[in-house]
């Protein structure tokens, strides 16, 4: 029995999860999210960490869990055994120019508000920290250590036995001090596929360069949006399903902990070639499951 168990654990530990920034309003009582539900159902071996973000956070009174459409949509998603819903918070009061300057009382209030979703029937499993630091300025290591400890250990929170913590600095930087805090994931590359001149508007929210964080692969997430047209003369790849397959395989082979590719921004998931259904299938297949 023991060797079989070890093999199973090893396989689970090396699979690349889906990390889906779900910034789309759940219209039709969550009906607009049905392609995501279909992808979860069709790929049961794939674990999907799904970031819920009503209003740059959990939303105030009347928003988020108070909105019947959000309540219905997130309940339906959370009912899938391979979905882990995580709540969005951010650390910057100036759109990322300064990190870790949201007052402690405010960011912990947002985390506590996410926990109230659990009481109201939506299993939130942890927190996605956006505008996370890219260097050690502004006492950010202490801030992120305190925040991680709070999310994982505060007795008033109900995110389950092992709360998920994801940092999103949105790019490479001086990240080792943050890997040392042992979050589940750091989004060390958030970039776009297409060439800058074809980017923009609702279709992309693209920085134009970035590199893989090669160390710490299992705690690293790679998000690629704007998967359309082609990616410039240097690589000369067209955004086809075949290229998607190759790129996703590359991510999995590097032992990256989680990934997401999509064609449009994080508000539309059915546009091809990187629709949610295709991405989930390609990733599940690349995982060998
Ligand atoms: C982190 O928590 C410690 C202990 O409560 C506190 O002294 C320190 O000021 C906090 N640092 C930040 C940056 O929040
Ligand atoms: C880019 O790829 C296309 C199709 O494979 C090929 O025809 C073209 O010569 C390539 N261009 C460069 C600059 O490599």
TrEMBL record:
Keyword Signal: yes
Segments forming a coiled coil: none
InterPro entries, per database record: Spherulin4
One of the Pfam families matching this protein, by short name: Spherulin4
Endpoints of the signal sequence: 1-15
Keywords recorded for this protein, A-Z: Signal
Name the record gives this protein: Spherulation-specific family 4
